User: Fold this.
Amino acid sequence: MQSSRPSKPHWASTDANCWYRWRGYTVRWLLFGGITGLFQPIVDDLDHYWLHRLHQFLFGLFFGSVCAVVFTLAENSLNAQRVNWKSWSILISTWLAVKLVFVSVMAAAG
Assistant:
């Protein structure tokens, strides 16, 4: 017996573009960046402990927002069919690439 409901996948959309599902990706990346930013060690100047924690948290949010932009563009252009292994590959590649850029810029800045 045939169902009267269409069997279109839930992610398929007629208006899907480069920014499709960006809100969900951004929330996840911001949570990841903020939480991991808070778990960075503080090795010196413990007099300003909470100021360092705030800076680490804000830097983590900035890292998460850059990752969200890169991941959203890559996921929507390279993996429109939402293949699971491709999504994970793009996620790990995004994290590595953005982390490499951030560390390189921080090393160059001193």
Remarks:
- Helices lie at 22-38, 49-78, 84-109.
- The mean pLDDT is 87.
